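Hi, here's the filled form for the chain we discussed.

Project: internal
Contact: R.S.
Residues: 171
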Amino acid sequence: MALPVTVTISWASNCANWVYGRVVANQLLGVVTAAVPLNFQKSVFQAQLESCVITTSSLAGATQFANAWEAAIMASATLMVSSGDYVGSSGPGTTWGSVDSKIIDPASISAGKAIIISLGSEGPVSLSSDSKFPEKFRNAFLALTGTISGKDSVPPPGGPNTLVASSIPII
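And the returned structure, exactly as it came back:
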């Protein structure tokens, strides 16, 4: 996917708004209850897109998009999960009394980035409806997983106990 040659950088803003509105704003954190688990840094994504170098190379263009996405995800590295959120069904053993760590799994960020870079092997399309861009970006977000750890809400003397949710899908 070659990057567009445009008079303005409004395409970067439009792309950032599209990604945020279509993919990020409609997320659910797999089996964990949380209102908006990933605080996607749209401004970081947009700034990275604005700094992209115009290219006719599909691989170079896709790599720049992937780098912009990765930078935004890394800036969003903490999931929005807090005490009172739970894994599966609510109960003292599945509800966090405290949350110590809530991260996006690094391997899943690499997997998402690779999905976006794979756009570089797609040929040009004459109709935007034939583009793989929306599908690849959505799949990159779907690849993201998180790990949350803390203490459950079991009262003493039996608790609180360690509560960990590993490799859970973010979206």
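Let me know if anything looks off before we file it.
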